[in-house]
Request: fold
Amino acid sequence: MRYLTYKDLYNQSISIESKNLCNDKPVVVFLSHKHEEVNFVLKIKEFFDVQGIYVKVDWLDPYMPKVTSLETAYKIRQHIMHSDKFILIDSESSKESLWIPWELGFADGVKGLIDIAVLPVTYNTQEWKGREYYGIYNFLRYDENDTLSLCNPSGRRIMSLVQWLET
Reply:
């Protein structure tokens, strides 16, 4: 089993099951990430878009304030509450974000553990060390069939990403 790497993102070699999620109601995912990582956040969004998954990226919302404010927090809360799933991108620079821990804490309170996943993006396919408290959440990584899957905190595969998104 391996983690998603920056190389995967830039080579567009992200793979999940071939099944396309074109349900009557599109799956909506809130993507928590470091704002400055525009390029690879867009790559991840493209990947989900192709799968029929609608991804909410706060800075792509034309109704978000241009300057961070109290209104920003209210709008992010609404986005999280109205999303089906919450995925936190844990990258090299995400640890510098003041918003990611707040978003995760809010999501934890309204979604519960089952609808939250951490998506590590690493340089090394075999190593990931997230924040200590990420250890209570499920995370995404490739399984032995090279399919992006949901794993429990101890690393055991639970189900494919597609199955998780459908639940």
User: Anything to note?
Assistant: The chain has one domain: 4-166. The chain has five helices and eight strands.
